[in-house]
Design brief:
- There is one protein chain.
- The protein is an alpha/beta fold.
- It has a single domain, classed as 3-Layer(aba) Sandwich (Rossmann fold).
- About 40% of the residues lie in helices and about 20% in strands.
- It is built from 11 helices and 11 strands.
- Strand 4, helix 2 and strand 5 form a beta-alpha-beta unit.
- Helix 1 runs antiparallel to helix 7, helix 3 crosses helix 4 and helix 6 packs across helix 7.
- It is globular.
């Protein structure tokens, strides 16, 4: 198995120029590189008030800075750590292939052990990884936030799987833009800097992340961490009704379907998301 890599020097340079612009827009930010079992992981830190920080995991094909719309509201409540996952585009460097979900948990555990106790939040496939580490290796995870998590409580709809050909390197730009827009319910992403960064990652980076299996009902019932699940009623990555029913098996879970939200729920409702995560933290 290979490691994730940019498809060309030009693709790498274009991505990093957009990445640097996005990071500059975060406001005061520091960075650190954390050595893990499978490579060096870049973590961006946006300082906030004292207390256990939020650690945010982005969706597949996205770096941590794709959480930019959520940072202002969250950092008013606590420090925010943005993780660039191994195997995807960003400033992390993958040295060893990821062959299984267990491998993904190993590198993420190294990151979490370095950062200390936290409130772990993931969206899309980042939510899937957050779910798995909270189930199998929850040390120090105070709460778990899953924002329209992909392949966690239901499979990905067939139409979205078919459309994901636009997410492959080398896909025509129009097809890639159509796929990115589909995730946002068909909205025109235009010159949105986060959308442009994600597009650059999709077009110029060959990811190397194993596809995790769909968790069983028993798996869901094994999560012992207090959990908030927010589902988009208009999501193209899951069936909200079926996902709500499966997520109801979480022993310490709160599950909400937001009817007007798409798969891009975090960026569509940043203040509301921050309020709900803050309530989760307060109740823990």
């Amino acid at each position: 198995m290979r490691t994730g890599h940019f498809t060309s020097t030009a693709a790498r340079d274009r991505f990093h120029a957009l990445y640097d612009d996005a990071v500059a827009g975060l406001g005061p930010t520091s960075s650190r590189d954390i050595a893990t079992t499978h490579g060096v992981v870049r973590v961006l830190t946006c300082d906030g008030p004292p207390g256990d920080p939020f650690v945010l995991l982005p969706g597949a094909g996205s770096p941590g800075v794709s959480w930019a719309p959520n940072v202002p509201a969250l950092r008013r409540r606590a420090t925010v750590h943005l993780v660039d996952p191994l195997g995807g585009p960003g400033a992390s460097t993958q040295d060893v292939p990821l062959r299984s979900v267990a491998d993904q948990i190993r590198w993420l555990r190294d990151v979490l052990d370095t950062l200390g106790p936290c409130h772990l939040v993931g969206t899309s496939m980042g939510g899937r990884l957050a779910f798995e580490v909270a189930r199998r290796a929850p040390a120090g995870i105070r709460t778990l936030g899953l924002l329209d998590p992909a392949r966690t409580f239901t499979g990905i709809p067939a139409g979205t799987v078919a459309a994901s050909i636009g997410a492959q390197p080398g896909a025509p730009p129009w097809l890639r833009r159509r796929f990115v827009a589909r995730l946002g319910g068909g909205a025109d992403v235009g010159d949105d800097p986060v959308a442009r960064l994600i597009e650059a990652g999709l077009s110029g980076y060959a990811s190397a992340i194993p596809l995790p299996p769909l968790p069983t009902a028993r798996d869901v019932a094994e999560v012992g961490v207090r959990t908030l699940v927010l589902l988009g009623g208009r999501s193209t990555m899951l069936d909200a009704g079926r996902a709500r029913d499966r997520a109801a098996l979480l022993p310490h879970g709160t599950v909400e379907v937001w009817p007007d939200a798409t798969h891009a729920l975090p960026g569509e409702f940043p203040e509301r998301v921050a309020e709900r995560l803050s309530s989760l933290v307060t109740a823990s």
